[in-house]
Structure formats: C-alpha cells, structure tokens
Amino acid sequence: IHTERVIEPSSSKGAALLEGWKLLFQNPSLRTVTCMDLIETFAGTIWIGAITMAYVTTVLHKGEEWWGYINTSYYVGTLIGGILAWKMSTYIQNNLIRSMALGSLMFSILTF
Which portions of this protein are annotated as coiled-coil regions (predicted)? Predict the structure, then answer.
C-alpha cells in the first residue's frame, strides 16, 4: 500500500500502533481489505464450529465436551499461528509472494 505522506519511524511501540490504526482508517483500500478479512475470519470460525459439532455428535458419537476440546485446540492453534506470523513479520514483508504461496499451500495441506 502506497501512501502519499512519509511516515516517520515511531519512538515507541504504542505510537507505532496508533500510526497503524490511523493509516487503516485513512486509507479506503486498506480499510476495505481489512473488513473483508475480518468478515472471512468471523464466518470461518462460526462455520468450523457448526461443522465440528455435527462431526463430533454424528461421526465420533461424543458429547459437547469433545466439541469443546476440538474448538479449544483450533483456537489455540490460531493464536500460535498469529504469534508466529507476528514474529516472522519482517521475513513475510520482504517475501510477500513466497509467503502467500507457502501459506496457501500449508492451509490446503492442513485442511485435509
């Protein structure tokens, strides 16, 4: 995303976070992509919860506690993945196409 103004490096993490939020609300394209990503994430998590419940009850013949175990594992994995992406953000930023391709490949493999 290209901006017309030069952003000075922030003196603190809080200032950098605030600059990011300002950029998000000032740039319509970035805001649109972010909203699309949020909607996709919410829909995906709701969908996976419903499908998992049906799988647990009809295929595994287990109760709601197993649904909770599986959902907990899913969300813990999501948090760990987010932390890893955050830690690897410099590499990801410098290798966007490779990172996107690898992410898509890993997602498709782990889905099955």
Answer: none
